[in-house]
Specification:
The chain has 251 residues and is α/β, with parallel strands linked by helices. Helices cover 43% and strands 16% of the residues. The protein binds phosphoenolpyruvate (PEP).
Length: 251
């Protein structure tokens, strides 16, 4: 059985206290009202991880980093390693978010190393893929996604591959209010699963593939109803505890 996952990416939002307050609010709602079969993840800024982890019920809510370094330790000012995330209480890490790819030069080559680092330190990578608008308009989206999947994941052992979660996030839908239609999401999710099945066989049936891009309470149900959509990576709507809960309960 594939796991249903809803993960909230807080990005660079909330002061420390606002973040703790939001975590407590989300925790109270999730513990009381969320569907029990959905894995809930929150990805606060690095500075909040340890306290957010203490503020939530660790059987119900998992904490994620939003990125990790390619190195384990050393003279890399400003970087946070996978081991540091793990030691602060994180269980997941978002890797390859389009904002990291476009603003911070994260290439597939770098992301391959980051995925390996995450796995080495027992973090579940939520590996993001997705095309920009020009690529979709030029009908290159399949090609782009294929490359993002093959270059980063195809050298993993089957045992490591089984630990990876994938998020399909069409870049034109992130933070824009434009959502991929349920058909567009299913088409790409199915394509990703086909690619993974060709390489990893039946293991790919168990891979959770999340949708991300302006997912909100009003459209989550129709997105999650698709056969290959196993949940969501949520940006803006994850900053409202009520909206986040509504998305979790959209399954
Ligand atoms: C994201 O940044 O991962 C995201 C999906 O953002 P939003 O939901 O705001 O489009």
């Amino acid at each position: 059985m594939r796991k249903k996952i809803v993960a909230g990416n807080w990005k660079m939002n909330t002061t420390f206290q606002e973040g703790i307050d939001l975590a407590i609010e989300i925790n109270n709602l999730v513990v009381e009202k969320a569907h029990k079969d959905v894995i809930v993840v929150v990805a606060p800024p690095f500075t909040h991880i340890s306290e957010v982890n203490k503020a939530v019920d660790n059987d119900r809510i998992f904490v994620a980093g939003q990125n990790c370094a390619t190195e384990n330790s050393g003279a890399f000012t400003g970087e946070i390693s996978a081991e540091m995330l793990w030691s602060a209480g994180a269980d997941f890490v978002i890797l390859g978010h389009s904002e990291r790819r476009s603003y911070y030069g994260e290439t597939n080559e770098k992301l391959k190393i980051k995925v390996a680092k995450a796995l080495e330190f027992n973090l579940t990578p939520i590996y993001c893929v997705g095309e920009v608008l020009e690529e979709r308009e030029a009908n290159k989206h399949f090609e782009v996604i294929k490359e993002q999947i093959e270059k980063v994941l195809f050298d993993l052992s089957e045992a490591d591959f089984e630990k990876v979660v994938i998020a399909y996030e069409p870049v034109w839908a992130i933070g824009t209010g434009k959502t991929a239609s349920p058909e567009q999401a299913q088409e790409i999710h199915k394509y990703i699963r086909t690619l993974l099945t060709a390489k990893f066989g039946d293991a790919a049936k168990k891979t959770s593939i999340l949708y991300g891009g302006s997912c909100k309470p009003s459209n989550a149900k129709e997105l999650f109803a698709n056969a290959d959509v196993d949940g969501g990576l949520i940006g803006g709507a994850a900053l409202s505890a009520n909206d986040f809960l509504a998305i979790i309960n959209a399954f």
